[in-house]
């Protein structure tokens, strides 16, 4: 019954450059009828497990426990529901439900668990201004509290001043918490749904990389993710170069899923994620820019050792990757949004396929089951090292460095929009070995960046502000 979990990320690691890009071993499985997952649970499981998952009938224990909320139980729960537990009188639902419906039951249980656990344990709460966590006590300080409008990203210039993007447009320059001014002469950008002025990332060479929702040219419609780099002369944006733009045919009126976080490795590459832009069906096509992790040389040319010659793609099968970081070992990680459940933390490896929209740990927004997490050939799809179930709207991510929080050094830190959470992860060999929620409920978490002194900056939306985590003493 305690079947081993398919090892996270290992699938991705196995995909080497020499192998042809993996395609899913089966086409999209049969469409399941749109039945509400909640209804199915209430009809089949309530009598023993309770509508809120607290158990109580026929020997069913409560699901509301930290231990049973662990992702290690995903596969075990699935198998138990499918095969039944004859020794305790629970039927094998594999006889009456499809695999997708059974996975929907697991997602539903996860939603009940989160609700129950939050009601029982609440959110991390400061006592006399101090948050206690497993390895460090910390405080939260306000850095910028006024003038921001849906802040999307932040980074620091070599002189220590901070750049902050606002999604509707514009990049602000701050000295400490004080506004110096807004950059002038930036390239055009449209605010289209989730797109607008997005990332700012300062490379050690002094080049400043930015990503925007770029308005389509004549004869095309909508917008698409585009990257530039430039320099600053006072507040003036100068020396602009285009680093990445998609063909006009890929511009779209969809307001969703632009990506687009930017990171650099130590070997002269820039990485960024592009979301599926409302075109799920084209994500698995490696020739489109949709749902890809891209890798370019710093000047925007395509590296010779990308998986497909002449193609900026490094990895594929993403829905909306909005967080990305390089850890201390040079591994690349991203966060990516599932629809309802199954937000992912992925180890990104060359040429790997992350499965969207064929495999996912989600259900549909409308509570109907539509996905299975695991392909039959487990090596064909890279599994996440961590998944949020239920969804948090996973967003900003960084690697913790610097001296402020030595016990967290090298850990990943990531947050969520709807989840309003900041979580810390310890990864080992591509697998998650420790996970802890540090903050919850302060606002929608968009960007997380570790300052070189090790304090951790977080851009919030609603309220629009920038806070930072500092050691308690
Ligand atoms: C007749 C009572 C009964 C019904 C109906 C029932 N269960 Fe259970 N279930 C149990 C008992 C008893 C256990 C074992 C004790 C426990 O783990 O809480 C159990 C265990 C489980 C477990 C934990 C298994 C594990 O490996 O740890 C899951 C998940 C589960 N049930 C899901 C469901 C779902 C989903 C449904 C409806 C589709 C359902 N059950 C219907 C009685 C029931």
List the helices and strands and how they pair.
Elements: H1 10-14, H2 37-44, H3 46-49, H4 66-69, H5 73-83, H6 99-121, E1 131-132, E2 137-144, E3 151-156, E4 162-166, E5 171-175, E6 178-182, E7 197-202, E8 208-215, E9 223-233, E10 236-245, E11 262-264, E12 269-274, E13 292-297, E14 313-316, E15 321-326, E16 332-336, E17 343-348, E18 386-388, E19 394-399, E20 412-416, E21 421-428, E22 431-440, E23 444-450, E24 456-461, E25 465-471
The site of heme C (HEC) has 23 residues, from α3, α5 and α6.
Summarize the structure in words.
With 473 residues, this protein is mainly beta. It folds into two domains: 17-121, Cytochrome c-like domain (Cytochrome Bc1 Complex, Chain D, domain 2, Orthogonal Bundle); 131-337 and 391-471, 6 Propeller (Neuraminidase), CATH 2.120.10. 12% of the residues lie in helices and 33% in strands. The protein is built from six helices and 25 strands. The strands form six sheets. It has a five-stranded antiparallel β-sheet, with no helix packed on it. The longest helix is centred in the N-terminal third of the chain and has 23 residues, at 99-121. The protein is globular, with a radius of gyration of 22 Å. The termini are far apart. Bound molecules: heme C. Residues 1, 44-45, 47-49, 55, 57-61, 76-77, 80-81, 85, 88-90, 93, 105, 109 line the site of heme C.
